[in-house]
């Protein structure tokens, strides 16, 4: 029998997840269906209840429901607990297992697709919202020397305190960055959505640095700034496919080959 999965968000019509999971399924010979489901803004819990009743095996969760999914899960993985948000739910009898594969997806894209070493590297993480919480644990697990920078410095400090026991992490404001250099700069802010540039100083990139914007589908001011400073610029498309691969593995116990799927999305 075909096992059913879905991605839930609002809005959801532009989600690439159905295409990604269908490509994974075709590649690995898994008999699954995967569709996009729009939940009403006040109806996430009801939508999950309906899917469970209909026998779905799990779902991905995207904006704006990742925190609600975290609260709804009856069991959480360590990385979901650290992220305080959930993007992957698995339904197993009465148990709703919540996981967060975003950070693992980002780190896999950086280390395995782009072949960057994070260990002992100064990595600047911009933003201290949900997206940054989602990726901090896997970055620290890969021994990055992490600095989180945020306009509202108190939020950066809060994040650094929350992860202090997990590795090398400190918090700064943008003004404190003058004179500092980083090998990898990750944009986890919402600035690209409003076509804004986080207030980075000139000279922030170490020679041959990587500029990684977690957004995809558009050139952000951060990407343009990074190109001007001759950094290697990457968007979040690889992370999107890798976080999906992690979810696929959780559900199906098999790793899809992500490279051809990333290629399809790039040329789409
Ligand atoms: P998400 O869940 O996507 O991380 P969020 O929790 O609303 O969204 O967090 C948005 C993040 O983007 C915050 O860190 C925010 O900085 P502040 O906390 O100082 O508001 C950051 N952000 C948004 N617009 C920005 C901009 N133009 N420049 C720099 N940071 C920005």
Protein model, in words:
There is one protein chain. This protein has 268 residues and is α/β, with parallel strands linked by helices. The protein has two domains: 3-100, Leucine Dehydrogenase, chain A, domain 1 (Rossmann fold, 3-Layer(aba) Sandwich), CATH 3.40.50.10860; 103-238, Rossmann fold (3-Layer(aba) Sandwich), CATH 3.40.50.720. The chain contains ten helices and twelve strands. Strands 2-1-3-5-6-4 form a six-stranded mixed β-sheet, sandwiched between helices. Helix 5 (102-113) crosses helix 6 (130-141) and helix 5 crosses helix 9. The longest helix has 16 residues, at 237-252. The structure holds 2'-monophosphoadenosine-5'-diphosphate (ATR). 2'-monophosphoadenosine-5'-diphosphate is lined by residues 127-131, 150-152, 155, 189-191, 196, 198. 2'-monophosphoadenosine-5'-diphosphate (ATR) is lined by residues 127-131, 150-152, 155, 189-191, 196, 198.
Number of strands: 12
Alpha-beta content class:
alpha/beta
Q: End-to-end distance, in Å? A: 31 Å
What's the helix-strand series?
EHEHEHEHEEHEHEHEEEHEHH
CATH topology of the largest domain: Rossmann fold
Strand order of the largest sheet: 2-1-3-5-6-4
State the helicity in percent bands. Answer: 25-40%
Shape-level CATH architecture of the largest domain: 3-Layer(aba) Sandwich
Strand content: 15-25%
Oligomer: single chain
- Give the CATH class of the largest domain: Alpha Beta
Q: How many DSSP H or I helices?
A: 10
Shape summary? globular
Q: What number of structural domains do the residues give?
A: 2
Hetero groups bound?
2'-monophosphoadenosine-5'-diphosphate
Uncertain spans, ≥5 residues at pLDDT below 50? none
Instruction: Supply the CATH superfamily name of the largest domain.
Output: NAD(P)-binding Rossmann-like Domain
